[in-house]
Amino acid sequence: MKGTNEKARHSMLLLLTAFIWGLAFVSQSKGMDYMHPFTFNGVRALIGALSLLCYLGVDRWIKGRARKRGGETKRERKRADKSLDIRAGLWCGLALTVASTLQQFGIKYTTVGKAGFITTLYIIFVPIGGIFLRKKVPGITWVSAGMAAAGMYLLCMQESLVLGSGDILVFLCAIVFTVHIMLVDHFSPKTDGVVVSCIQFTVCGILCSIGALIWGHPTWIQLWEGRGTLLYAGVLSCGVAYTLQVIGQKGVNPTAAALLLSLESVFATLAGWIAYRIGFLGTDQTMTGRQIAGCVLVFTAVILVQLPGRLFRRRGSRTI
Asked: Measuring CA to CA, which residue among 283, 188, 176, 222 is closest to residue 37?
């Protein structure tokens, strides 16, 4: 029972992550109206790192006052933990930089529908990656992954799937996001999730800012005009959501995590529809029957993958 409750809590954290990312789609898309992709990615990542740094500072101050004294063994263990946190943050930061850059540039050269569907192919890539790491993947997980991919197709695709330059960039982005999910799965049980997130955003922010200075030519006017999109994307989408991802994946296998995180496309579609209905967006965001069917498929896939495996296991059956 304890293990089930723990898995449910971590799953809820990943669900909240998908919700924040889904709402952040508007900010990410709008931010492109004000500045270069490198500028947007760099500044929002640095904002995310700064918000987490403030949290860590307050947290360390509170713990420092309550701490009595520690022995030599504790200090050595903390030093080793810090080294692993740094390595995890560097690797995750590099993967995040490449993935977010490919996605941001890819969106410029393809439609949002294609980008949304192609990006969520990490639902399929994650269990495939697990095979190379010699991890057993239950059969129901493969079924759920296929259902989720089909749901994403119905939800996002409004035209024929013909790969152009932007589609290829977003496809590569999905592969790198798969690597990022696998890295988080590898490091999260042994590291401090907040510290790793802070480091990965610092790495991403610095690298993207270098690209912005070379190619983006950022100005204070651009940053001021896009301040709202940057703050949401930086504080919530980066600082909060990515940290929730790292913490949430401590108790959920990477394939199930990928399915939960893929709900960001569903939340983005629903948020766009609600925003249109209340007059916040001028473009018609009404969902068609096809899109609603896609939402149903995705939610069903997520529910299936979260159910105990024994419900689908017959006596003598094996996982594949």
From this structure: 222
Give tens-digit pLDDT for 183-239.
Answer: 888 887 888 888 888 999 999 999 999 999 998 888 999 999 888 889 998 888 888
10 Å CB burial of residue 293 (0-12, 13-18, 19+) is middle
Closest CA to 263 of 237, 293, 298: 298
Alpha-carbon distance of 17 to 204, in angstroms, equals 19
SS3 36: coil
Run of H or E residues at 229:
helix 227-231
Q: What is the pTM of this model?
A: 0.75
Phi, psi angles (nearest 5°) of residue 265: -65, -35
End-to-end Cα spacing for the chain: 26
Instruction: Say how far apart CA 320 and CA 310 lie, in whole Å.
Output: 14
Among residues 109, 100, 123, 114, which one has the least CA distance to residue 237? 100
Question: Who contacts 235 (Cβ-Cβ below 8 Å, separation ≥6)?
Answer: 47, 48, 51
Closest to 127 in 3D by CA, of 19, 245, 257: 257
In a 3-state reduction of DSSP, which class is residue 262? coil
Q: Under a CB-based contact definition with an 8 Å cutoff, are residues 152 and 262 in contact?
A: yes
